[in-house]
Amino acid sequence: MEIVFVRHGQTDLNKTGRIQGSLFDHDLDAEGRVEAEKAAAKFDPSSFEVVFSSPMTRALTTARLFVKGQKEIIEDQRLIEFNFGEWDGEFLPELGKQYPDAVDPWGKAAANYVKYAPSGATFEDLHERCGSFLNELQAKYPKQKILVVCHGTLIRMMFAHYFTNGNMDYFDTINNCALAKLSYLDGWPRINYYNRVLS
């Protein structure tokens, strides 16, 4: 099995540096759409046998640009972005100053962020959700090439599921419209590339 993940294009919240979790369903902004169109122009969807997307607007717009009408897009609720609760829509650098124990040295929310955003999901919840999706792919498409268009935190956890038992600390968020690929063969996962930029 081969899976290529694509992160959605830029939105206005991405541009301003705010946290964009599942509570905000913004579409791509004008700059993000141009970026996605440029990346999609260099992307060939013909070799993919199955295409999945988060049902969130920013991901579906990106998926449609990348597949160019050649493939059916399967929407899967397990691919929606992480719910950051009260932190959603806030500036992470400011949160880091206010709650330094809940933001890691790289400027990412740490697992204990839920102390200050109690309505948010836990990293364990996300790990379970991503694991469920990946296990289903392994069972249904063991020899297929799969395209998945989703979100930055989701892609971090997809890789963390296979390589660090759900610890996302080892994986950065890939760029908007960037690609990350992993392969899975006879119980062995392998990273082929991470944060490949096309545009």
UniProtKB/TrEMBL annotation:
InterPro entries registered for this protein in UniProt: His_Pase_superF_clade-1, His_PPase_superfam, PGM_Phosphatase
Domain of life: Bacteria
Pfam families: His_Phos_1
Official protein name in the record: Phosphoglycerate mutase
Taxon lineage: Bacteria, Bacillati, Bacillota, Bacilli, Lactobacillales
